[in-house]
Amino acid sequence: MLGATAFAGGLADALLAIHYLGVLLTEIHHISPKFHISVLRSPDGIERKFLIGSLSIQRAAVWVLQRYYSEFPSYNPHLDRLPPLRRRHGTSSVTNGNGSSFKFYDFDGMSSSFAPSIGRLSRRGISHNERFYEEHEFERRVRKRRARLIGATEEAFTHIKRLQDEQGTGVPLDCLEAAAAVFPSLARPLQKYLRVTRQLPWHTAESVLNHLAMALRLGLSPRAFLEKFLSSPAPIHTNREGKICSWALVSDISVSRTIALNTNFLLRNGEVSLFVTVSPLPHFNVTEQIVDPKNNKFTLRLSSETSV
Length: 308
Fold this sequence. Notes:
It contains 6 helices and 5 strands, in the order H-E-E-H-H-H-H-H-E-E-E. It has helices at 2-31, 57-71, 111-165, 175-196, 205-218, 222-230; strands spanning 35-42, 47-52, 248-251, 264-269, 272-280. The termini are far apart.
């Protein structure tokens, strides 16, 4: 009886060790990169590429979402709708009743039948031209607001530094009070920059004030303080769904199958979709090539006309 109990205990220990070894081999198998995946976000078309191991479609979807929330820029739907280009005075084009921005001149008294056809033919060209100038105007406005914001922030931080260096008899302020004192000087440039870049819903006045107080307390530079606003934040910083983010996985094959060549699946959350394409990495055949050191000898022949 004692021998049977010892045998059963040893068998259980062996099965447990085999189970742990299988789990270890599975994790190592997943760590080794075997596939190249392309993650394309719709509707803005931003794409990122990663290396991934051998995973099932379901686990690969979770892996992609982890990379998405940490490495992708946040999707801003307001940037897809640029403001209309403001017409400046003094432009040489005149808009007629047919929607064309060209001027028409009547030389032979036959322009009444010619002008509408030109307007219809050139409407498509005007559309992409207007889009080009709208994007150019938007980039110009962003650069202008950015320069003003950087200048106002540097001036505010210089003022705080000057007050710290001076040995006055005033009442000392803590970081939050100092931030509230200099915040009005940079609030307007910051608000204009956030408005033109469509980031106002992401940053409230209280959050900006707390961020400014932290920057003053830690002694950060003006550019370090502005990095939060000048760069696009990751989706994990603009997530409003709480601790649980719901995504729908769309796949033509079973999600329990391992990813392979030409495996495609889609992750969807509202108006944001992630289209994932899988391509296997090639097998690399690397051979060693030995270079004979005797061949690495050179002969230099100098002529009398050569200047050395």
